[in-house]
Write a structure and sequence with these properties.
With 117 residues, the chain is mainly β. The chain is built from no helices and 8 strands.
Length: 117
């Protein structure tokens, strides 16, 4: 079982299914206290969003999210994210998510850690 430290890490989207609203200009600012994780996110079609959840013993993230998009819609969903360590040491999460609002559809996305320059 491996856990990861996501505290103060920034992630960006590198892939998303068509029914998702996150894109390459969305930035996620993660925080962590033990197994409690939360993040603020914005960019692209997202005006402001938050996620809240737990890091499981294997490093997976289980969270709920909500945001307001540029159409002024409040969107809510749930997500399970599986970690990978990239060759350069950055984290990547492969995500399986589902809307709890709107059409209730599901999708997949990938986010990667942004290195501070």
């Amino acid at each position: 079982m491996q856990t990861f430290n996501v505290n103060h890490k920034i992630f960006r989207s590198i892939a998303n299914t068509e029914n998702g609203e996150v894109d390459a200009s969305t930035r996620f600012h993660y925080h962590q206290d033990g197994d409690l994780i939360w993040a603020e996110y914005a960019g692209g079609a997202i005006l402001k969003g938050h996620l809240l959840g737990r890091m499981l013993a294997d490093g997976e993230l289980d969270f709920r999210y909500h945001h307001v998009n540029t159409a002024s819609e409040m969107m809510v969903g749930m997500c399970r994210s599986t970690p990978q360590i990239l060759p350069d040491g950055r984290l990547r999460y492969e995500e399986r998510w589902q809307w709890l609002s709107g059409d209730g559809s599901a999708g997949q996305s990938v986010i990667e850690e942004v290195r501070a320059d």
